[in-house]
Amino acid sequence: MQNLDTNQSSRSRNESRQRPLYKAFNLLPEARKQRTVRQDALKFVLRKWKKNEEREIPIISKRLQFWLFLSDWWWLMSAIFLISGLAAINYANPWHKQSEKITDCVKENQCIVLLQSASVDDFFSPDFDTGELTVKFTANGTSDDYLGIRNQGDGEDEIRTKDNNVSYGGKIIGSFEGGKETEPLLVKFNTSATREAAQALVRNIVYQSVSRNPKIGSRQVEFKITDGDGGISKPFTIKIQDKDSILNVPSSQTVKENANLSISGISLLSADNLTLTITLKATNGTLNIKPNVAKGLTAKDISNNQSTQVTLTGTVKQINSTLADSGGLIYRRNKNFSGEDMLTATVSDGEKIVLWPPSNSEDVNSNLDSKSISITVVPTNPPPIITVPSKQFTNQNTDLPISGMTLSDPNNPNLTVTLEVTNGILTVKTDIPNGLTANNIENNKTKKITLKGDTTKINKTLANAAGIIYRGRQNYAGSDNLIITASDGSKTDRETIGITVNDNPVISIAKVPEDVSSVPSGSSNATIVGEPGQKNIRRGPGLEYPTRHIAYPGDRVQVIKSVRNSDNFIWYHIYFPQSGADGWIAGNLLAVDGQTTYPSQPQIQPPSQPPPKASSRGTNATVSGTPGTKNMRSGAGTAYGVVGTVRTGDRLQILGSSYDRGGYQWYKVYHPQSGTTGWIAAQLISSD
């Protein structure tokens, strides 16, 4: 029994001795990695571990130092062995020095830069030789804090540390010491330390906490530099602040559009006597802070009160007392606003700070924390809501039932609804059970219909499979829109349903030419003209008709007849003898044999009066016609290319006039708004 106890005791002692060795061995890879990143920081940590009161920690520190030494010695012995072996066999291959891997602690998110955009100026000293840079904690520094130099590399404008030397652009500019615990970081410059080098160094001073649980709070760091010629900078101070949130805000808020919203729950989590600034900003409302609350802020501590952005400055206790009052913070929406608003609270201390721990980007600023509160402003009379189906498709000359539309309005049972299209007519069914009657429908079977009545009855009509019928105008093919507008008397909603009207396929045989007695005999009597390129042959006399086939300038055709369309343009019905096809082409794209214009076309003489003179404003005409864009062309006629566009209502200056092959008058105009000169059809402008 005694032997068993002795064995167990011996085994326990062995395990106790071996446990630190196992831990040190497991830490060795990470220690080697950290030594590559920051050798001085690792030494600093190992020295602190040696002083630790726990029995295992000093043992782990000693073993790590010993194994790191052996690791260094092993690589040295390997290098000597390799060199000796190469020399023994007289292998003359040149040596290639591998570049040393440099790890940037900033890029690895292990440290933060304190003054990333600092400037160093010295107008009377050519360099900083024998000068010094001192960086030290002036408030709240701890034994876990570390000040050091960023290790960027040897590239141009880069800072590099090796051993105790610091270099700029690959050239040593001085040596450094300290920076551990609360010991100041001191850099002594040499003759290579130019102003640019000193500035780059100041911009790459870093802070790191070597503790996994650093002391919460701020640290104050002071920078001071001398130029070696007697010049000493004024101390520059920056604050390091932990990233733990110091601001509490409530959850999202809701208020009716005609009411005030009292917001409570905004508070600061910091020492009561700490002086801070909190900025409250609303996007679509005004904020009112109550002054002179007991133990709170006075009116002079509140800037821009009763505005969209209010600033409070005082101690944490004063700010919290004011914001905790039942009427301490009042929000009221802007006039006519309803919907989602945002109240943003931002805390700052008025000093330049950086935040710890590091993140992907660090900017020097004075903001400690910022949070937002969502505010929903509910309208007292919300507008109607229209729900519509997706895009609709139909064929030429075919009825299209449109269902899937619904209306809602929580406050108003009665609505006025308009349904409007451009290229067709709408029909509303009047005998749907519990739906609208003819008395509730105005202008039925037209382009624009008005429905009035109870929302339930309107929805019954709209939901019926044949409640709303759309039909495009005769032979129309193209796009249209059904525009639905609902009004409760004060607010409206508007939605649009796209409609595509497809042209019907046609099977036909070649038509025998008709009414050709007035044109010369023969298989063809006209030529297609215009600029090079294809010309559309359409199914009817107008651009609204779909293209049937194409032809090219120089093609010979036979004229069947000519007509004026609804826009008063001449179109020719033509026949292609070679293919047996027929169709319609604009008059300005056709030249009839033996005549300038077709005999049935009236002759239009140019005006004897000159075009209107330009006014003092440089314009003397206005683009007229249906709303939209009009083309300006390079010549008098649609055969010419488009050089620009104008819109209805634009002002123009008339420069001259001419006529196309169809006898239509065109004006040469200047468009001041775009600086374009071109031709536009006379019927599209009105002269002063």
UniProtKB/TrEMBL annotation:
Q: Which segments show compositional bias classed as Polar residues?
A: 518-527, 617-632
Q: Where are the transmembrane segments?
A: 73-92
Region entry Disordered, spans: 518-541, 596-636
InterPro entries for this protein = SH3-like_bac-type
Please give the name of this protein: Genome sequencing data, contig C320
**Family annotation (Gene3D superfamilies):** SH3 Domains
Keywords per UniProt: Membrane, Transmembrane, Transmembrane helix
Which stretches make up the SH3b domain? 523-594, 618-688
Q: Where is the composition biased (Pro residues)?
A: 604-613
